[in-house]
Write a structure and sequence with these properties.
With 341 residues, the protein is of the alpha/beta class. The chain contains 13 helices and eleven strands.
């Protein structure tokens, strides 16, 4: 049996007639219910305390103008009693700010949020947002093949600014977002104009890793390099090739194999090398995730680390600390933020 909302409220009203002397109409009851459901506003606080809205606002927000201590105490006490909570939407309409930072990953792939690189970046960003009382919005519906749709999403006013994590080379998102007036910060890439960029000194980072292996007596070194559509992947590959020539290392083309900055790709990339008759004494991997994959492949094939093969990665994340023995890794040398013009 279907019962209309109006009929339900009529029945409730009839019941109320036994509880109150004055009859209550359905409309009045609806209005009362709505009033109870509506959250307390700053206007409600001001009305009850007979204060101006601006005075209540100053008391709640500690400024920008000072408020007498006794007035502030009254405002805060009533706000607590009435469970007052700031309306973020209303505040945003007044200030023109959402107090939210958006994070745009380089690409979306299955389980990308489990990537140690993403986790470390997100952890740092979240910690800083917490200090600044900002919220964080991670744009997960991301596709490199639908950049215009993504551009509309990241510049629709939901965030005050964007952090691009290692954007793909050739991506138009940064240019579009900048043209639309969205403040930007870019990590692990130089491309983008008039925005702060945090990059890695990849040559010096790779040099530290390779020279460490050379100091241990290694001359036969394989290299598992990262994605060649990411700046770090390209620069670290070029750095290794340059160092291999300068240091006269043995590193034939079949020992310089592509990975995708993932553990699985490091594992697959190293298998053929480790199963061949010509085996290097060391591996340099362009990040820790791939290094862990090489580590796994080597131990499965019976190699002892570091007795038989040495492995060095880049990132100095927590990923390799769970290996036994622990993975040797180099911290990224972060270059000071620069604004390109």
């Amino acid at each position: 049996m279907k019962v209309s909302v109006h009929r339900i409220y009529t029945i409730i009203c009839e019941t109320f007639r036994f509880w109150v002397k004055k009859p209550v109409s359905a409309v009045q009851l609806i209005q009362a219910d709505v009033a109870q459901l509506m959250p307390t506003t700053i206007r409600d606080l001001a009305k009850q305390l007979n204060l101006s809205i601006s005075t209540v606002s100053y008391a709640l927000n500690d400024g920008p103008r000072s408020v007498p201590a006794e007035v502030k105490e009254k405002v805060l006490r009533l706000a607590k009693e009435l469970d007052y909570r700031p309306n973020r939407i209303a505040r945003s309409m007044v200030t023109g700010r959402t107090f939210t930072i958006g994070v745009v990953p380089s690409d979306q792939f299955e389980n990308f949020i489990l990537s140690p690189f993403i986790l470390d970046c997100m952890n740092g960003i979240i910690n800083e947002c917490e200090k600044l009382n900002y919220d964080l919005l991670l744009f997960t519906r991301f596709s490199a093949n639908e950049e215009l749709k993504v551009a509309d999403s990241i510049s629709d006013g939901r965030v005050d600014g964007l952090i691009f994590l290692a954007p793909l080379l050739g991506s138009k998102l940064i240019e579009i977002a900048h043209r639309r007036g969205v403040p930007l910060v870019i990590t692990h890439s130089h491309h983008g104009e008039q925005c702060a960029t945090y990059t890695t000194n990849n040559f010096d980072t790779v040099s530290i890793a390779v020279n460490h292996l050379v100091s241990l007596g290694h001359k036969k070194i394989a290299h598992v390099y990262g994605k060649q559509i990411l700046e770090d992947g390209i620069e670290r590959r070029k750095a290794f090739e340059k160092l291999a020539k300068e240091l006269q290392l043995t590193s034939p083309p079949e020992w310089q194999v592509p990975g995708y900055f993932t553990r699985e790709s490091g594992y697959e990339a190293s298998l053929n090398i480790l199963k061949s008759d010509n085996i290097p004494t060391a591996f340099f991997c362009s990040n820790d995730e791939m290094a862990v994959g090489v580590y796994q492949a080597a131990t499965e094939l019976g190699f002892k680390i570091p007795e038989d093969i040495s492995i060095v990665g880049v990132d100095n994340g927590t990923y390799g600390s769970f290996m036994n023995p622990q993975l040797t890794t180099v911290s990224e040398l972060i270059m000071a933020p620069m604004v390109l013009s």
